[in-house]
Structure to design on (752 residues):
């Protein structure tokens, strides 16, 4: 069995690959022995050979000889290790590994560092020596291929216990060069700890009582509510997993089917009366404030490896994915019948009675929240967390109940799931928006579906939380929304007071506002300087409609001539309005334009690379809850084709001027966020005579002029001026009721 970790109570081995795969861990145990083979190599063929190798009845020495024979002239670094758990030993051999750290009990950290590859004379020498270490005598083993990360590990090894410690503190900062490593830790069993054992019948009442008991225990040992909430959230998910797989014998596939058929809850109620299984829980608190919790069931186990890559169409595994993200480490052993997680018990001081206005929790404490979620487990877990942050929490299990609570109590913030019985979250939000345009609505969803996003944006949803939701993400989003709302309410109060100010004071305020407006106008002039517009240099017609809602715009565009045949068009629509959105838009355009200038000067322009580089760049400037909608369209007028990558925008419209046909090209990616990893670039086939229009959402998001109106106008009209007349004449007065920044680019090739 192939995995990216190996876990036992007295040690664990983890691997990490950020780019090309350089590591492998294999379980080669037999009926009589427990053995595990692991390897590190920059040569993928070496790993492929090992993963297809037959280890039966072959000694470690024989395996090495076979690998050496196959790759005698390979110059890549190779590490081969064998853990014989039956004998409690680890044997290893290395060939030109650049960085190898070993720490034995009561010994200093030993560092093996070879010369750079270009200075080596030879690699797989005929003579080699296998080294062996007793597992009881080993604390740390660390193999990697990155100089900066090696330095980081050497300087911080005392604080590193898990792979996540390395990844989150090193890799996610500026040091984002792809690298790989393997990390073996048997230090934890050597740290003193206090252990608690629990054995319970797998009944829901018993499970809830145990969770309450453990929460009380953790609160007595840790005075940070966020940390305790995270630990209890993970515990709840893993106990539930053990209950379903172990006690009720529900396979992953069966659970998926039951949920899709909306019969899962009913099945649980029917089955739990006959449960007679036990769950074993062991909880340890180490001297370094690390919490370890193991949950063991006596069922048939499950294939936990499938939960590592959960798709948007699968329900199963989402809770485990959430637990893996929230914990320091999560391991499964015994074919999934035992789960173990670690979390650091923060010693941060609990909030004082006197709330500091600089504390983000301060704002949530002043407001009320309505939380709507049909999944009882998720509702209970996050309900407990939200209750600690807000003045008043209202909870509902479907849209009908949520709407009733809203009508009766008028909460300040709404957090709602989408998929719910009786009335879903989108329908409930739409009904609330009929009378209330200001209440913040946060949508939680397990789906990364563009159509859902567009419908939600059209309704007026303010923020999105993609399941599985991490506690950190939930906190930051709620606190940010609460702070904005609190400050907005305070501003309204101040405005009411300002209305009663004396004329002199009002005059001073007006002068100050004039100064701020003048500064904003200067900033907008700089923003316009960023815009690159090569439309006059093109052989095809191109027109732009650009109307910012306020002085500073969250919309920006670019028309960039790549060469005589290709032109890149883009529109960026930053989330929100005002200064924050304008900063994101300006940063985006400045980066894109600069990258295009450099690449076209060198003759190396590549759309795929531009989008990748921009994606990586802008992520570092987006807040947790922010998103950017944008469209890239690369038009080749010689081949009558285009490539497009569209992120959370409305459809591109293309018209064949000869046939009169309209083609809609839907957005092929969700809005860009800090967490977006994969995206699509698609090809468009254009007619020899064509019109094409793409736009930000401001042009169609009001009752007077919708997407269907735009499509009808685009079908009937052949010029952009006529389309603009249709748009502007749809308003009752000349003072248009714009609700957002408006940007549209119209491209036309009328032919000769």
């Amino acid at each position: 069995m192939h995995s990216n970790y190996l876990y036992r109570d007295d040690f664990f081995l983890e691997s990490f690959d950020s780019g090309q795969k350089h590591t492998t861990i294999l379980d080669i145990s037999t009926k009589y022995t427990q053995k595990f083979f692991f390897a590190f190599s920059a040569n993928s063929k070496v790993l492929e050979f090992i993963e297809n190798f037959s280890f039966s009845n072959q000694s470690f020495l024989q395996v090495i000889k076979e690998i050496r024979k196959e790759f005698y002239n390979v110059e890549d670094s190779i590490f081969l290790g064998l853990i014989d758990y039956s004998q409690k030993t680890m044997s290893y051999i290395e060939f030109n590994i650049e960085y190898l750290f070993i720490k034995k009990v009561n010994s200093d950290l030993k560092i093996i560092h070879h010369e750079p590859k270009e200075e080596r004379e030879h690699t797989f020498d005929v003579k080699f020596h296998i080294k062996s270490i007793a597992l009881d005598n080993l604390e740390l083993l660390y193999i990697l291929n990155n100089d900066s990360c090696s330095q980081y590990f050497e300087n911080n090894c005392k604080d590193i216990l898990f792979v996540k410690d390395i990844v989150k503190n090193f890799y996610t900062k500026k040091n984002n060069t792809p690298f790989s490593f393997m990390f073996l830790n048997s230090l934890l069993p050597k740290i003193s700890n206090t252990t608690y054992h629990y054995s319970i019948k797998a009944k829901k009442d018993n499970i809830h009582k145990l969770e309450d008991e453990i929460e009380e225990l953790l609160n007595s040992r840790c005075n940070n509510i966020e940390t305790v909430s995270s630990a209890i959230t993970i515990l709840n998910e893993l106990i539930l997993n053990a209950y379903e797989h172990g006690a009720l014998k529900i396979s992953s596939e069966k659970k998926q089917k039951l949920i899709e058929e909306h019969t899962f809850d009913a099945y649980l109620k029917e089955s739990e009366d006959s449960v007679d299984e036990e769950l074993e829980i062991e909880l340890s608190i180490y001297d370094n404030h690390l919490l370890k919790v193991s949950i063991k069931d006596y069922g048939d186990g499950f294939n936990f490896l499938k939960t590592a890559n959960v798709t948007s169409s699968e329900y199963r595994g989402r809770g485990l994915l959430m637990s893996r993200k929230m914990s320091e480490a999560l391991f499964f052993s015994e074919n999934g019948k035992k789960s173990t997680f670690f979390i650091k018990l923060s010693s941060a001081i609990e909030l004082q009675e006197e709330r500091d206005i600089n504390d983000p929790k301060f704002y949530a404490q002043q407001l009320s929240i309505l939380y709507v979620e049909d999944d009882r487990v998720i509702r209970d877990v996050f309900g407990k967390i939200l209750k600690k942050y807000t003045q008043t929490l209202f909870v509902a299990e479907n849209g009908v109940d949520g709407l009733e609570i809203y009508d009766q109590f008028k909460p300040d913030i709404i957090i709602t799931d989408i998929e719910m019985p009786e009335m879903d979250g989108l329908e409930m939000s739409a009904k609330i928006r009929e009378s209330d345009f200001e209440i913040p609505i946060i949508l939680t969803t397990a789906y990364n579906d563009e159509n859902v996003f567009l419908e939600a944006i059209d309704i007026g949803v303010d923020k999105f939380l993609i399941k599985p939701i991490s506690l950190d993400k939930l906190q930051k989003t709620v606190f940010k929304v609460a702070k904005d709302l609190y400050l907005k309410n305070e501003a309204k109060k101040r405005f009411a007071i300002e209305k009663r100010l004396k004329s002199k004071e009002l005059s001073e305020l007006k002068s100050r506002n004039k100064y701020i407006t003048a500064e904003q106008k200067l900033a907008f002039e700089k923003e316009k300087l960023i815009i690159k517009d090569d439309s006059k240099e093109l052989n095809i017609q191109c027109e732009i409609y650009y109307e910012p809602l306020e002085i500073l715009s969250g919309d920006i565009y670019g028309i960039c001539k790549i060469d005589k045949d290709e032109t890149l068009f883009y529109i960026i629509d930053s989330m929100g309005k005002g200064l924050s959105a304008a900063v994101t838009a300006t940063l985006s355009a400045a980066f894109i334009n600069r990258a295009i200038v450099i690449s076209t000067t060198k003759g190396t322009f590549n759309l795929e690379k531009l989008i990748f580089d921009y994606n990586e760049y802008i992520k570092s400037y987006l807040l947790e809850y922010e998103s950017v909608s944008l469209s890239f369209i690369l038009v080749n007028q010689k081949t009558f084709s285009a490539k497009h990558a569209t992120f959370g925008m409305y459809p591109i419209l293309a018209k064949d001027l000869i046939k009169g046909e309209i083609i809609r090209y839907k957005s092929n990616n969700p809005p860009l966020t800090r967490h977006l990893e994969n995206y699509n670039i698609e090809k468009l086939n254009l007619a020899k005579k064509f019109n094409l229009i793409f736009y930000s959402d401001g042009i169609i998001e009001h009752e007077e002029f919708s997407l269907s109106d735009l499509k009808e106008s685009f079908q009937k009209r052949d010029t952009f001026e006529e389309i603009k007349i249709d748009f502007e004449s749809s308003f009752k007065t000349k003072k248009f009721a714009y609700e957002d920044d408006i940007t549209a680019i119209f491209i036309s090739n009328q032919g000769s």
